[in-house]
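Supplementary Note 3. Input sequence used for the single-chain structure prediction.
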Amino acid sequence: MGAQQTSQGGTITCTDQRSDSAHERAADEANKCAESAAEGLKNSGEDFLAEQKAKAANELLTWGGAIRSAAEQLRHENEPRTAQYAEKAAERLERAARLIGDRDLRSLVGSLETASRRRPEIFLGGMFLAGLGISRFLKATRSDNQWAGMAKS
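The predicted structure, written as discrete structure tokens, is reproduced below.
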């Protein structure tokens, strides 16, 4: 980068300012590109999570409606106590769907963290039940051919 010249027994060192300036511009450009890429990824991730949050809220509303229909059927079959439990479950699912749909992701995570610290046994039990529900859902969505292939293995 530097150039050295000899002048009557002495050495004079000159720094090439153009080279340092070019490196700084290149570094600035690289930083801008990295920031832009990071912002794009962040926005894509937020959009994806917002979409998944909306899907989860809609799914909970669907489940709530199905349980509410089951509660009505139970009332017609003279099972009022069971219908009452089903109605409460439907109300809670619908309330959870509204909560998920109305709040932003950061707020939901904060609420979940607070609740899990306050009552960890309920949080762990809920996670266990969610796992059971997900596994049942996955089993139900597999085709008979997939199960037959697994049985042969």
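Residues 124 and 130 are 10 Å apart (CA to CA). Helices lie at 17-76, 80-102, 105-118, 120-141, 144-152.
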